[in-house]
Amino acid sequence: MKINTRRFGEIKIDAGKIISMPEGLPGFPGFERFVLFEDPHSAPFCWFQSLEEPNLALVMMNPFVFKPDYEIDLKEFVASRGWKDTNAEDLLVYVVINIFKGEKNKRITANLIGPIIINSKNNQAIQVVISDSTYSHQHNILESF
Asked: pTM for this structure?
C-alpha cells in the first residue's frame, strides 16, 4: 500500500502495520489510522504518520532510551481498552517529541505525561494521560544524555 506524506513524499507501507486509534489523538479529531515507521536518518526518533492527512506526522521516541526509570502502570489502560490476553511485551510505549529550533532556543522535549501506547498484537493505540505524576509534558531529553 502506498501513502502520501508531506515529509517523505510517497512511501510504501505494509497494510498489516496500520494502527487504529478509535478515539483519535487529542487535538486531531477525525484522524484514526496511523502507521509507525522509522527513518534511518532520524534514529532514535520515529514517525507516527496519519493515513488520512499527509501533513500530520508526529515525531515519537521510546522514552526508556533517555529516561530508563520512566514508569507507567499499563494494567489500567489495558483493562480500559478491553485488550484481553495482552502481555506487557505486546505493548509499545512512545512519547511525542517536540523539536525547537532557533539560535537561542535549541531544545528537544518529550511529553512524558501523555504517552502513546500501541498494542502490537491487535494494532490498536491510545494516547493516555498520566495523572498524579511528577512527569512533565516538556521534559528536556537533552539533559538526559
From this structure: 0.91
Domains of the chain: 2-144 (2.30.290.10)
What residues have CB less than 8 Å from 103, skipping those under 6 apart?
none
Query: Cell numbers 489500567 correspond to what residue?
Result: 76
- Rounded Cα gap, residues 17 and 119, in angstroms: 11
Would strands 107-110 and 139-140 be described as parallel, antiparallel, or unpaired? antiparallel
Q: Is 78 helix (H, G, I), strand (E, B) or coil?
A: helix
Reported as a pLDDT band with limits 50, 70 and 90, residue 100 is: confident
* Residue 73 · residue 84 · CB < 8 Å: no
Strand partners, 107: 100
Q: Which one, of 45, 135, 144, lies nearest residue 98 by Cα?
A: 45
> Environment class of residue 30 by beta-carbon count within 10 Å: exposed (0-12), middle (13-18) or buried (19+)?
exposed
